[in-house]
Structures are given as structure tokens and as C-alpha cells.
């Protein structure tokens, strides 16, 4: 491996600031350059700009304005004897890569896929593009092994790297602890990768072995890698560049400027420009050092043991941050069941005042409604403090899908992919708090008993085995009318009348259902799009028009026979196209005629049951799992659906319960609603406590899923 050397640049090989280009109004998101030395930049201000050097200074020679709201995330430049092309990745396109030698453009997206485009054929009436499907989260990094046509390397938010030959996965490389954001091919045998874990890794292409790992001195996300002569450069969050052992280097910052560096003294910037730049860097470094010092002083260390022995685990909490983040990190670091998170969070809040205050701030809805931000009006604006101390504004309208809001928020602020689930859950909880309809929040939720220990000595108290741990009551007294006792002990659950209401939600008063939503119109648009792709199983115009009336909640008479014929066809579509037709199916089950048609066990019920179970058991995309669980919840709306859901109870219940381990809030809610409906059905069908069977199976499956 003597041909690869990764070390910091030697003293004397100094880089000087050469030019500062005031390029964009806000963040410069991406850069590339041409063989003629033209710099091409893309920014958050929705512009692609060309910069040419004339008389020693760079000036704008050309620009492309993008449609309103479309930020330029990535740029690809292709040059040939026939001319040049610039590709701009916007909206859901995370990254682009141009292989000029083989005339190929690669694009990676939030939809987890990569498309290989034949550049020379783009613009012709017909051309063939390859779809690379295999990653489970967004694709953030792309490269081609240009000396080996047809071989591509992709990096993803799922922490993996894949080698492809055309559209076939040849090899998967694992080792990064967070999102993979950059790939740099060194040769046909070697490549580098980098990402949010602040490490650069050297891989052997053919053996999938990580040959070496290099840690960034900056210890922040690494966004990109590049060759400059004999150097490898890495660009990190905060505007940092690290040179790993040029004549010119370009860099971008979040202030809208492009900074050009050089090793030639004759190309240095003027003394005044360099002094201003050095002062700004010194101030930035001082601020970062002060932040790290404060962070070190604000870290509370709690020694923890899960048994009666000496504490052998350390729980770290940084004052002022969300205690949930500390609890989740602790559970992840020590490979503990996720069910511990709530208990650890409550313990931290109960013993560290700053944690309780931070939790209140995190979940506080700003009193101002109809907030105007950047000329746009929003229903709510939340102040969110993330791990690195930044306070960001999360904007939300009541009609918005929390998952879309989370995606927009994470993309805008370049947050780790793990923030998707956290942000979606945060918005969902707040939304249901506002509407007072959450089964997880409000006065009727289950709240663990508060710790009785008031000690402020954080390094010896154990939240699992110490005096502050949660201990269920063993009292045999009657339960209070408000149902506030422990639901798993005798004192809170008198056996004489198990159907007596103990609170607004215990037992469940009626079956939960998922009705017509604002997103249903989007599903219809997607349905038309997916239908057009079908080679044989295609819906006709009458069927689509009837479905549109069904999904709009129209009071007009609907021909249910047309709906059933449409669903019979659509439910045969492939997994990739199934989402919009499943959305129609779950709404259809709310209508008694359609519910009977699909769920009657004397007719099609067994086939419907088998199809839904197979979908859940096949580890489908989250969107499929969500809609299957919503369909099951809606099936409870009518007698035939309830009868179907008692069939093969154990397998179907286990499949739904397994969805509780997902980090996606919408899937948790759909699965929990289905389980709540089952609880009501089992309650109404069980007349004596001595009965053993489905209820006990249900409890066992829930316990198993959370352990």
C-alpha cells in the first residue's frame, strides 16, 4: 500500500488565500470547475453561476436562475467535442457525479436510489437509464471507477457503501458509524470514503476490506473529498478544510463567498484581504475553543449499573440539551433495549434541573401563530436546539405531513439522517398535543412513578437498581376513580369489572380509524402516475374517476363494484408501485360494503388476510408498512373486518407488534392504533378473567417486541 499516503501536509507547504468571490446571497452549496479554469457554483439562493478569471480577478460571466424554492444541492459538468452541459441537482437530488470518460451521469436521491444516465442520449426521443436500488436510506455520495466502465460506488445515509456493476450490487462495505457523504476513487483497486462520523476510510475494492481509518482533527461532519495534485483535501462542517499530504484550491462557506487558495506566493491576495480573513478565522477558532470548553464544563457524568455490582457504564448529559438525546445515545452505546429510553429520560429530568428546563423548552409551542418567516406564513415555529448547540427554527403548518417537514428540516440544516425520525416524532407529538387527540400524550397517558431520591450526587445513583428506580406498588387497595395507578398491579386494576372506564382511553372507547386525509389528494396524483407505468395491470378512466370520488369523501353515490374491480387489479402491482393503491384500500375498508367484500371469511377474507400478512412479513418500505397497519386498523370498523382479524391471530398480531420497534413515528402510530383496536375487540369478546388465549398471546407478543 505504498502508493497511498494519508498524513497532514508538511510545514513549508503553506496555502495562501488568493481570492474571495462574493458569489451568492446565502450558502454556497456546491462547486465544480472546467478544464479552462472556470468555477461553477450553486447556492441556496436558487442560482447556478459561472466565474471566469480576467485580469487576476474572478467575475460572473453567466448564471441560471432556478424555479422558486428549488435550492441547488449539487452540480455536474460535462465537456466534450460537441460542447458542454451543466447538470443541477435540486429538491430531492442529493448528489451528482459526471464520468466524462464514459459519458455517464450518476444521480443520487432521497428516494434511496441511484440513476445512471447516458449523457450522449439525453435529449433523444428514447434512451435507457439504469436504476440502482439497494440502499435503505438517501444516497449522498457517488463515484465511478472510470478505468472500469460500468462499475460504480455509492454511499448512503444507511451507513453503507456499495459497489455496482451496472445495476447489480457486487459488494457492500460497512464500517462507518454515520451517514456516508463522500467517496473518492484513487485507482481501480482503492477508494476513500468519509462522512458524518468525522473519519476517512481507505478501502480495497475487490476484498471489501477497510485498509486504514484516518480521524479528522476537526471532529465534525466531512462533506466532501477531492484530489488537488498530490494532496487529498477534506471539507468539514463549519467551513474547515484539511489537507492530507497546487496550484489552486477552491472552497465554500456558508457566508455566500467562494474562497480560492494557492501555494504560489505570486498569486496571494492583498495584505488587507489576507488580514481580514485571518482575523475572521482567529475569531472563529476562538469561538469554537470556547464552545468546547463550555461543553466540557457542562457535562454531567452518571455512573450506572444494571445489577447490584459496581457501576460499569457511564451516562453523559450535556446541560441545556434535550435529555432524550442523552438517553438514546446511552442505550445505543451499551446495546440496551430501546424501552429503557423513557425511564432514563425521566431520571435525568428528575435529578438535573437544566435537563427538566431543556425538555420544557424543547416541547414548548411558541405562543405566536401564523408566523412569517422569509416571506412565507406558517402556523407554528419551534425553536429546536441540536447536538452541536445550534438553535434552529422548525417551521410547520397543520396541513403538513410530519415526515415531509422532517425531511425538509434535515436537508436545510445538513443534519444527520438520525434526525429524520426524531424530528418527525417531535412534530407529531406537538401536533397531537395541539389537537388534544394523542393517545400518547395528555393527562391520560401512562406516567412512570417519580423517583423519590433527591440526591444531587450524580456519579453514584443508578436509575435501574438504586433507590431512585421505578418500583411498582404492591398495595392491595382499590384503585382510584381517575385510573392514575399502575395499570399492571392489583391496586390499579380491580378484576370485578374490567370494562369499567378507568380514564378517557382505558379501555379504548371506540375503534380508531384513519380517514380521508389532506395527503389523500397527493396519493391520487401518485396513483395516476403509477397507473401509467403499468404494462398490463392498468386501471381505466372510469375506475380512476370513481376512486377520486371515494378519496374526496364525496357524498355522491359511489359505484362500489367499480371500486372493487379497480382494487382487484391495483393490489396486484409490484411493491414499488403499491403505495397509492394501498391508500385507496385502507379508505375503502371504512365503507361497510367494501369491508364486507374484502373481509368476509366466507368469501375473500382469507385471501385479504394472507396478502396483508405477507406484505408485513416481507420487510417492505416504511410507507407500505404504515398503510398496511392503517388498513388493519380500518378493518375493525365493520363486523366482517373484525371477524377476519380474529383469524390466525398470533401471526398477524406478531407482525404488527414488530412495527413498534421502528423509529418512524407514523408507523408507530399506525401499529399502536391497530393494537388498541385489538384490545377493544378482545375486551368485548372476553367475559371472564379466567379465560386464557388471545389476550395473553397479545401481551406476550408486546413484551417480546420491546425486549
TrEMBL record:
PFU domain residues: 337-441
GO molecular function, one term: ubiquitin binding
Signal peptide: none
Domain PUL: 504-707
GO biological process terms, semicolon-separated: proteasome-mediated ubiquitin-dependent protein catabolic process; ubiquitin recycling
Keywords noted in UniProt: Cytoplasm, Repeat, WD repeat
Segments annotated as WD repeats: 21-61, 132-164, 173-213
Domain of life: Eukaryota
Compartment(s): Cytoplasm
Keyword flag rRNA processing: no
Coiled-coil residue spans: none
GO CC terms, sorted: cytoplasm; nucleus
Family: Belongs to the WD repeat PLAP family.
Listed name of the protein: PUL domain protein
Annotated source species: Dictyocaulus viviparus (Bovine lungworm)
High-level lineage: Eukaryota, Metazoa, Ecdysozoa, Nematoda, Chromadorea
Amino acid at each position: 500500500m505504498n502508493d497511498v499516503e494519508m498524513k497532514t501536509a508538511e510545514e513549508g507547504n503553506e496555502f495562501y488565500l488568493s481570492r474571495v468571490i462574493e458569489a451568492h446571497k446565502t450558502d454556497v452549496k456546491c462547486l465544480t470547475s472546467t478544464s479552462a479554469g472556470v468555477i461553477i457554483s450553486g447556492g441556496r439562493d436558487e442560482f447556478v453561476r459561472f466565474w471566469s478569471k480576467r485580469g487576476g480577478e474572478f467575475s460572473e460571466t453567466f448564471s441560471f436562475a432556478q424555479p422558486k424554492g428549488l435550492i441547488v444541492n449539487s452540480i455536474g459538468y460535462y465537456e466534450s467535442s460537441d460542447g458542454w452541459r451543466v447538470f443541477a441537482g435540486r429538491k430531492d437530488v442529493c448528489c451528482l457525479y459526471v464520468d466524462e470518460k464514459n459519458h455517464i451521469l450518476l444521480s443520487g436521491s432521497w428516494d434511496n436510489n441511484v440513476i445512471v444516465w447516458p449523457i450522449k442520449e439525453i435529449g433523444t426521443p428514447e434512451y435507457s437509464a439504469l436504476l440502482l436500488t439497494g440502499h435503505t436510506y438517501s444516497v449522498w455520495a457517488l463515484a465511478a471507477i472510470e478505468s472500469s466502465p460500468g462499475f460504480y460506488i455509492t454511499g448512503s445515509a444507511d451507513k453503507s457503501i456499495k459497489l455496482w456493476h451496472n445495476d447489480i450490487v457486487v459488494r457492500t462495505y460497512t464500517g462507518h458509524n454515520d451517514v456516508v457523504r463522500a467517496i473518492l476513487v484513487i485507482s481501480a483497486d482503492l477508494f476513500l470514503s468519509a462522512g458524518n462520523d468525522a473519519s476517512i476510510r481507505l478501502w480495497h475494492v475487490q476484498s471489501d476490506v477497510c485498509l486504514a481509518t484516518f480521524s479528522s482533527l476537526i471532529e465534525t461532519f466531512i462533506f466532501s473529498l477531492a484530489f488537488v495534485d498530490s494532496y487529498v483535501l477534506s471539507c468539514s462542517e463549519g467551513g474547515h478544510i484539511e489537507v492530507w499530504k497546487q496550484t489552486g484550491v477552491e472552497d465554500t462557506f456558508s457566508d455566500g463567498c467562494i474562497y480560492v487558495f494557492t501555494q504560489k506566493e505570486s498569486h496571494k491576495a492583498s495584505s488587507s484581504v489576507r488580514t481580514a480573513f485571518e482575523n475572521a478565522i482567529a475569531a472563529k477558532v476562538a469561538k469554537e475553543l470556547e464552545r468546547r470548553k463550555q461543553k466540557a464544563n457542562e457535562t454531567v457524568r452518571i455512573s450506572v449499573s444494571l445489577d447490584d455490582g459496581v457501576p460499569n457504564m457511564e451516562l453523559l448529559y450535556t446541560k441545556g440539551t434535550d435529555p432524550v438525546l442523552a438517553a438514546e445515545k446511552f442505550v445505543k452505546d451499551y446495546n440496551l433495549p430501546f424501552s429503557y429510553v423513557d425511564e432514563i429520560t425521566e431520571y435525568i429530568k428528575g435529578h438535573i434541573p437544566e435537563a427538566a428546563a431543556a425538555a420544557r423548552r424543547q416541547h414548548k409551542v411558541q405562543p405566536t401563530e401564523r408566523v412569517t418567516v422569509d416571506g412565507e406564513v406558517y402556523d407554528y415555529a419551534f425553536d429546536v436546539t441540536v447536538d452541536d448547540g445550534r438553535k434552529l427554527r422548525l417551521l410547520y403548518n397543520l396541513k403538513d405531513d410530519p415526515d415531509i417537514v422532517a425531511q425538509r428540516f434535515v436537508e436545510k440544516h445538513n443534519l444527520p439522517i438520525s434526525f429524520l425520525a426524531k424530528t418527525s416524532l417531535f412534530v407529531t407529538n406537538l401536533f397531537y398535543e395541539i389537537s388534544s387527540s394523542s393517545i400518547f400524550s395528555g393527562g391520560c397517558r401512562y406516567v412512570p412513578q417519580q423517583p423519590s431520591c433527591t440526591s444531587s450526587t450524580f456519579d453514584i445513583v443508578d436509575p435501574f437498581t438504586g433507590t431512585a428506580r421505578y418500583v411498582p406498588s404492591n398495595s392491595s387497595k382499590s384503585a382510584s376513580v381517575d385510573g392514575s395507578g399502575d395499570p399492571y398491579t392489583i391496586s390499579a386494576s380491580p378484576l370485578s369489572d374490567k370494562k369499567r372506564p378507568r380514564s378517557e382511553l382505558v379501555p379504548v372507547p371506540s375503534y380508531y380509524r384513519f380517514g380521508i386525509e389532506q395527503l389523500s389528494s397527493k396519493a391520487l396524483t401518485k396513483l395516476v402516475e403509477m397507473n401509467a407505468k403499468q404494462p398490463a395491470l392498468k386501471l381505466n378512466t372510469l375506475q380512476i374517476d370513481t376512486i377520486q370520488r371515494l378519496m374526496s369523501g364525496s357524498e355522491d353515490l359511489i359505484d362500489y363494484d367499480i371500486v372493487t374491480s379497480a382494487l382487484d387489479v391495483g393490489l396486484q402491482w409490484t411493491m414499488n408501485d403499491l403505495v397509492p393503491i394501498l391508500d385507496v384500500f385502507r379508505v375503502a375498508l371504512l365503507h361497510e360494503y367494501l369491508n364486507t367484500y374484502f373481509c368476509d371469511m366466507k368469501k375473500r377474507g382469507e385471501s385479504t388476510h394472507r396478502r396483508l400478512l405477507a406484505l408485513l412479513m416481507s420487510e417492505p418500505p416504511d410507507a407500505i408498512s404504515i398503510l398496511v397497519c392503517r388498513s388493519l386498523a380500518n378493518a375493525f370498523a365493520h363486523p366482517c373486518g373484525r371477524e377476519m382479524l380474529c383469524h390466525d391471530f398470533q401471526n398477524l398480531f406478531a407482525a404488527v407488534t414488530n412495527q413498534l420497534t421502528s423509529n418512524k413515528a407514523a408507523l408507530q402510530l399506525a401499529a399502536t392504533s391497530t393494537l388498541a383496536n385489538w384490545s377493544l375487540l378482545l375486551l368485548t369478546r372476553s367475559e371472564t378473567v379466567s379465560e386464557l388465549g388471545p389476550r395473553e398471546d397479545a401481551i406476550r407478543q408486546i413484551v417480546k417486541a420491546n425486549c
